[in-house]
Write a structure and sequence with these properties.
Strand order of the largest sheet: 1-2
Number of domains: 1
Structural class: alpha+beta
Radius of gyration: 17 Å
Distance between the termini: 16 Å
Protein name: Cinnamoyl-CoA reductase 1-like
Largest sheet: 2 strands, antiparallel
Length: 66
């Protein structure tokens, strides 16, 4: 993606990515270990970002075609 942003590629796959803060994951693991009734699987997601948004941020940070 970095190469696409820096070269100004006109095409890319517009997928989405789930983001989460690693500290939130660590805190949740600790809470789960401390709570005997915690069981099962959980999905932690702070936000979902599409590639076009991420590419826009990368382009903004690195400079490149608008």
């Amino acid at each position: 993606m970095k190469n696409e942003a820096s070269k100004g590629s006109e095409t890319y796959t517009n997928r989405n990515l789930a983001w989460v803060n690693v500290q939130d994951v660590a805190d949740t693991h600790i809470q789960a270990f401390q709570n005997p009734s915690a069981s099962g699987r959980y999905c932690l997601v702070e936000s979902v970002v599409y590639n076009y948004v991420l590419l826009g941020l990368i382009t903004e940070m690195l400079g490149g075609p608008q």
